[in-house]
């Protein structure tokens, strides 16, 4: 395989918050593999941080605002993308949110509002982004979303986020079915627990991390660098016939029953 399997490709990256973000690990790996990157930031609070990180790849690396709960902002974001390129090849969706209290109380106490917010931000946004990305992928492409084992099994305190991730994974399959004949592939990476801002929002996250170390066949969870490598694989021709799948990068934890 070439040292730069993504050379000549343009990637849109949603979800970088800081240098610990999984989105950042994959973005760096994509850039190292030759891709040109365009970033979003969600809200003024994150603007400066994302802009500063983006300069890693050159002072002129594009960064634009996009609140993924707003169709108008998604439209505006892709109009901004068109200032730099007529087509895109890759999309990373690493976006998730649920109100803090919904990740602390028991799931049965989830409010209607928290349920709706979690699904809008964490799952529907993949559909909304794919609608716009499809129009800029005339030669096909790869759309990758980030999930977690809580989508298929109960993880303490993950609560409504697990239900939203289940919706995300189902959406991945339906999008893959719709877009496959256009050579657009849609897959999920299900990462083991990683020390990110989002991860630390889950109550007793430290216990979850330790549990993986104690029970995963490899005796550990994954590293950001390993997630980056998986992101490159799913973006490259090496995965040209893989779509609608959830790839577990979790030290093997997913295979263990007891």
From TrEMBL:
Keyword NADP among UniProt keywords: no
Keyword Transmembrane among UniProt keywords: no
Name used for this protein in its record: Enoyl-[acyl-carrier-protein] reductase [NADH]
Residues the record lists as binding NAD(+): 15, 21-22, 67-68, 95, 165, 194-198
Classification of source organism: Bacteria, Pseudomonadati, Verrucomicrobiota, Verrucomicrobiia, Verrucomicrobiales
Gene3D superfamilies hit by this protein: Enoyl acyl carrier protein reductase, NAD(P)-binding Rossmann-like Domain
InterPro entries: Enoyl-ACP_Rdtase_NADH, NAD(P)-bd_dom_sf, SDR_fam
Family statement: Belongs to the short-chain dehydrogenases/reductases (SDR) family. FabI subfamily.
Substrates-to-products reaction catalysed: a 2,3-saturated acyl-[ACP] + NAD(+) = a (2E)-enoyl-[ACP] + NADH + H(+)
Biological-process GO terms, alphabetical: fatty acid biosynthetic process
């Amino acid at each position: 395989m070439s040292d730069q399997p993504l050379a000549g490709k343009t990637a849109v990256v949603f979800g970088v918050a800081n240098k610990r973000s999984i989105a950042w690990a994959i973005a760096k790996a994509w850039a190292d593999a030759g891709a040109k990157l365009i970033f979003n930031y969600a809200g003024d609070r994150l603007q400066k941080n994302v802009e500063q990180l983006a300069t890693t790849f050159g002072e002129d690396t594009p960064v634009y605002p996009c609140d993924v709960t707003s169709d108008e902002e998604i439209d505006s974001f892709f109009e901004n993308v068109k200032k730099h390129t007529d087509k895109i090849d890759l999309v990373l969706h690493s976006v998730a949110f649920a109100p803090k209290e919904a990740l602390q109380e028991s799931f049965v106490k989830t409010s209607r509002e928290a349920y709706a917010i979690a699904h809008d931000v964490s799952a529907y946004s993949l559909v909304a982004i794919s609608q716009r990305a499809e129009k800029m992928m005339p030669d096909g492409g790869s759309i990758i979303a980030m999930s977690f084992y809580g989508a298929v099994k109960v993880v303490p305190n993950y609560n409504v986020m697990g239900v939203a991730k289940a919706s995300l994974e189902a959406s991945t399959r339906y999008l893959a079915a719709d877009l496959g004949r256009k050579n657009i592939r849609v897959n999920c990476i299900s990462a083991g627990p990683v020390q990110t801002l989002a991860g630390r929002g889950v109550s007793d996250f430290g216990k979850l991390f330790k549990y993986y170390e104690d029970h995963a066949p490899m005796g550990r969870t994954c590293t950001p660098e390993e997630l980056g490598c998986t992101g490159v694989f799913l973006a490259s021709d090496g995965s040209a016939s893989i779509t609608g799948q959830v790839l577990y990068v979790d030290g093997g934890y997913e295979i263990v029953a007891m």
